[in-house]
Amino acid sequence: MQKGIILDTGVLVAFLIPNDKFHQWAVASLTDIQYPVLTCEAVLTEVCFLLQRVHLGRDKALQLVKQGYIEIPFCLSKEIETVEKLMQRYNSVPMSLADACLVRMTEIYTDASILTLDSDFRIYRKHRNQEISVIMPDLER
Description:
Layout: E1 5-7, H1 9-16, H2 23-31, E2 37-38, H3 41-50, H4 57-66, E3 70-71, H5 76-89, H6 97-108, E4 113-115, E5 125-126, E6 130-131, E7 134-135
Parallel strand pairs: 1-4, 2-3, 4-7
Antiparallel strand pairs: 5-6
């Protein structure tokens, strides 16, 4: 059972949309983990935006938070300076606010892995030079 999961936008969207290309992978990945998973408000904002035209999509995403499957321990106002520096460092990628928050979360929750569909997390580094533990599908297929 995988412990310490930080959840990115794409996986949650794929999990909630049955006909998404990565739905089965997301379901399988979220089956064998210890709950709650962690994320940030920026990720939930992206998820709600992407699910706005999906019937009950936003409601289902928020319900996962209400039911305790997803926890949002990250406080941007306390981490804003570090997050801003990350976004500046990866300006050429470019790094979104949500991605910067998740990278910062990996610095705080040192044993956690990011569950993502975003290959940019293979580029990003925590503490400037440490690889981030990433769980993602093999996108080469």
